[in-house]
Write a structure and sequence with these properties.
There is one protein chain. The protein has 300 residues and is an alpha+beta fold. It has 2 domains: 150 residues, no CATH class; 94 residues, Chitinase A, domain 3 (Roll), CATH 3.10.50. It contains 13 helices and 8 strands. It starts with a helix and ends in a 10-residue tail after the last helix.
Length: 300
């Protein structure tokens, strides 16, 4: 894979698979219920599925064939996905969502990308195997890989990250009362759920998720204060626009850098993949190797 932004490029492809799943579901769910009723007009499941097939059918089928071809050819060639790399790619996507827990990451994936963690893992595996198959006969020297690594050092650096909780109130008086209750031993998450006026985080006990000091979600007024917080300590009330926010640091991850040894195989494959012929040519070659027959067409 390339980087977090690059990872988003293939998430869109999952929409095609969702169309296929929707299609299959309606086929199996029985044809007595209409797909929709608009005024006095009924849109049947058959009409709905036919429209899906006409508009997206060829694209969905080709996408499904390509995935199956890549997985079969990789298995035949003894090529597998390294579990550490898979988790690294998944971690990059999770960090880009700022998810607090695995369940929140799953919910965010479903809401924003219409997919699941398992489907995402399958998509990452497909991309890795496709790159590997397309470049398996290419040779990239270590010196070239190292030069590219050194030129992209920022890409392999993860800044210090903080997991924050917050309590947001509307007035200085409310903020003073919250701070007094915290000093008397009240639970930060409980107060956040009961009194914070930030609906998005209150429901999770004030949990903001993982942020870096450069994160746009963190107001400028708060950055120099939260950066100095110790684990499990909370700040004084910080005036942000017309509200008052009290932050708590729940976890901290120090800055880290992936070493050349950790990324060289991944980077070597990326460099090689950038030099391959058209991806359509690669997939067509793989189709011929595996053997594909589409109903009504000659075998590939």
């Amino acid at each position: 894979m390339t980087n977090v932004k690059g990872l988003w490029a293939f998430i869109g492809a999952l929409v095609l698979l969702l169309l296929a799943v929707t299609w299959a579901w309606y086929q199996a769910s029985g044809k007595l219920q209409p797909a929709a009723i608009v005024g006095d007009k009924t849109i049947s499941n058959d009409e709905y599925v036919t429209a899906l097939k006409q508009k997206f059918g060829k694209q969905v089928l080709n996408d499904m064939i390509n995935r199956e071809v890549v997985f079969q050819e990789a298995k035949r060639s003894g090529i597998t996905v390294d579990s550490k790399q898979l988790e690294q790619e998944l971690s990059q996507i999770r960090d880009s969502y700022g998810s607090r827990t695995d369940s929140e990451f799953e919910a965010a994936l479903l809401k924003q990308a219409g997919t699941t963690v398992e489907a995402l893992k399958q998509e990452i595996s497909y991309q890795i195997l496709l790159q590997t198959l397309a470049t398996k006969d290419m040779t990239i020297k270590d010196e070239e890989v190292l030069n590219v690594y050194n030129s992209r050092s920022d890409r392999y650096t993860r800044p210090m990250q903080m997991r924050l909780g917050q309590i947001v109130v509307a007035s200085p008086k409310e903020a003073e009362q919250v701070l007094a209750d915290l000093k008397n031993g009240a639970d930060f998450q409980t107060i956040a759920k009961e009194r914070s006026i930030d609906a998005d985080t209150a429901v999770n006990g004030g949990d903001v998720g993982w942020v870096s000091i450069k994160d746009n979600r963190l107001p400028d007024e708060a950055k120099p204060i939260v950066e100095k917080l110790e684990k499990d300590k909370y700040s004084e009330a910080i005036k942000i626009e017309d509200q008052y926010v009290i932050y708590q640091l729940t976890e901290r991850r120090e800055a880290s850098q992936r070493t050349f040894e950790e990324v060289k195989d991944e980077l070597r494959r990326e460099i090689a993949f950038a030099q391959v012929e058209s991806l359509d040519v690669v997939l067509e070659r793989l189709r011929k190797s595996v053997g594909v027959q589409i109903s009504g067409q000659m075998p590939h």
